[in-house]
Backbone:
């Protein structure tokens, strides 16, 4: 027992060193030379806590759970690409919309991506759509948001082979009130029994999350290319 404790004591400095190293950020090898710091991204898992979001039955499925599982995977893939990621929630808790916007606006984040799942009275409705804010007063932000929406939708469809419902203008609070380019992804219909069965699987969630991360990566790479 004493030997075990001694061994653990030896390991602690290494573990804390590794954590400190991680805090300084992942290697930036994937970024174009001249870009001093990795972009900061806010990932917003929709709903949470008492706000369950859309629900489907047989098999039972809650939007708040799907959005958190998918958002966590998006963070994992973005971390691997070297981006800095802030989550508005990483557990099953209720966060008011205004707080989500505050988190984004008070950070130095470059973009905001909200992850949701859809619902319709028409149980045959299916597929993926991505919303962006459209404002004449903030036209630069609107056009950047649309580019981000296009990039994400394209990559999610490529990964999932889901039906594309297109990129659409949306007046949702979190994408309207945030100051950076922002999108809201509706990554599939919980109300459609076939799509719901897919959405519940880890494999399909990974495809959606990979698509969102790929789209974000594409967006930044396109921006740097056009800036140089
Ligand atoms: Zn939702």
Residues:
């Amino acid at each position: 027992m004493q030997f075990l404790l001694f061994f653990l004591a030896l390991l602690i400095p290494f573990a804390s060193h590794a954590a400190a190293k991680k805090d300084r950020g992942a290697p930036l090898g994937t970024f174009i030379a001249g870009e001093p710091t990795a972009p900061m991204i806010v990932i917003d898992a929709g709903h949470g806590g008492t706000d369950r979001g859309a629900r489907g039955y047989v098999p039972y499925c809650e939007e708040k759970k799907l959005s958190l599982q998918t958002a966590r995977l998006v963070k994992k893939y973005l971390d691997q690409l070297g981006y800095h990621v802030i989550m508005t929630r990483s557990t099953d808790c209720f966060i008011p919309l205004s707080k989500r916007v505050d988190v984004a606006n008070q950070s130095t984040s470059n973009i905001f991506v909200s992850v949701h799942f859809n619902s319709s009275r028409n149980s045959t409705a299916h597929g993926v759509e991505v919303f962006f804010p459209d404002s004449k007063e903030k036209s630069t932000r609107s056009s950047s948001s649309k580019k981000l929406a296009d990039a994400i939708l394209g990559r999610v469809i490529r990964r999932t082979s889901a039906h594309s419902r297109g990129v659409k203008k949306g007046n949702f609070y979190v994408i309207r009130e945030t100051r950076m380019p922002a999108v809201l992804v509706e990554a599939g219909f919980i109300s459609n029994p076939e799509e719901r069965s897919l959405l519940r699987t880890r494999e399909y969630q990974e495809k959606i999350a990979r698509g969102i991360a790929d789209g974000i990566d594409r967006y930044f790479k396109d921006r740097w290319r056009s800036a140089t």
Notes: The pocket of zinc ion is lined by residues 46-47, 53, 63, 116 (CB under 6 Å). Residues 3-29 have pLDDT under 50 and may be disordered.
